[in-house]
Design brief:
The chain is α/β, with parallel strands linked by helices. The protein has one domain: Alpha-Beta Barrel (TIM Barrel), CATH 3.20.20.330. The chain is built from 13 helices and 12 strands. An 8-stranded parallel β-sheet has the order 1-12-9-8-5-4-3-2. A two-stranded antiparallel ribbon has the order 6-7. The protein has a two-stranded antiparallel ribbon with strand order 10-11. Strand 6 and strand 7 form a beta hairpin. Helix 4 runs parallel beside helix 13 and helix 9 crosses helix 10. The protein is globular, with a radius of gyration of 17 Å. The model has no long low-confidence stretch (mean pLDDT 95).
Length: 292
């Protein structure tokens, strides 16, 4: 059954939590390429995916957030995009089995069309190569996440829709303003995001990162003012990151995050999970609320 079939039956689905902070805790060093671990430290990457499956996740992402040609070229790995993304998806598929879903993670390229850093064709081809690699490895979903610019996100969605058979999710990162509005770094509102991502072809929209789970409630409400029907995915941080003794700390506990899950569902969220700072313990606590 596809994820859209499950959502059509009004199921609330649980995604996974942080990958980056988990990799760092496992030994990823500053300046080291996370995606290369898919072939050099496969077992460690698999253990992360398995931990989230054991915690109750219905959807497992992949270790491929920076797996585009632009980011991988910085490590001298620009010729291994398809290989590393396929390996990432194969690892998560092994953990997920046939009953859970694998969402191939596609993050921003770090290039800006408005600045002339890259052409639309170059962006499209970069996202196409990444998405097809993820599908070849076993992903049934492509999640374009942590986006801030509509043009880049739209190109990524089109590349995934036009070159794979995967369900496509598009999520952006919003920051709250003193007047209660939410905007991405490039000034995009949740309402503008919804309209643009649907036009590009996204099956599911939402928000990840940037906020603790409480602030995500307002974002979901704004999304629902624009579209009452499209499925919404929310992956919140474990609070706002704080730098303490040169370490990034996220203060929201599993119980605290889970306590907001009913309000998120009431606001209109269909898929809930975690982003930076969340752990299998956070996902397990959420699963207990969702299962009820």
């Amino acid at each position: 059954m596809s994820i859209l079939d499950k959502l059509e039956k009004k199921q609330i689905l649980l995604s996974d939590g942080a990958w980056g902070t988990f990799l760092q805790a496992t030994g990823l060093k500053p300046g080291e390429c996370p995606e290369l671990w898919n072939v050099t430290r496969r077992h460690d990457v698999l253990s992360i995916a398995e931990a989230y499956i054991e915690a109750g996740s219905d959807i497992i992402e992949t270790n491929s957030f920076g797996g585009n040609i632009f980011k991988l070229s910085q490590y001298g790995l620009g010729d291994r995009v398809f290989e590393l993304n396929k390996a990432a998806a194969a690892i998560s598929r092994q953990a997920a089995g046939v009953l859970k879903h694998v969402a191939g993670s596609v993050g921003p390229t770090g290039k800006m069309l408005i600045m002339g850093d890259v052409t639309e064709e170059e962006l499209y081809n970069g996202f196409k190569e990444q998405a097809t690699g993820l599908e070849a490895g076993g992903a049934d979903i492509i999640i374009i996440e942590t986006m801030s610019a509509i043009d880049e996100a739209s190109i990524a969605v089109r590349a995934a829709r036009e070159n794979t058979k995967c369900i496509v999710i598009a999520t952006m990162t919003f920051e709250g303003s003193p007047d209660g509005e939410y905007r991405t770094m490039m000034g995009v509102s949740p309402s503008e995001m919804v309209t643009a991502m649907i036009e590009a072809g996204a099956h599911i929209v939402g928000s990840n990162c940037g906020n603790g789970i409480e602030n995500m409630i307002g974002i979901v409400r704004e999304i629902r003012l624009t579209d009452r029907h499209i499925p919404v995915m929310i992956q919140a941080n474990a609070g706002v990151p704080e730098l303490i003794e040169w370490k990034t700390v996220f203060r929201e506990s599993p119980v605290m995050m889970a306590s907001y899950v009913p309000a998120l569902i009431e606001a209109g969220a269909n898929i809930i999970g975690g982003c930076c700072g969340t752990t299998p313990a956070h996902i397990y606590a959420m699963s207990q609320i969702i299962r009820k």
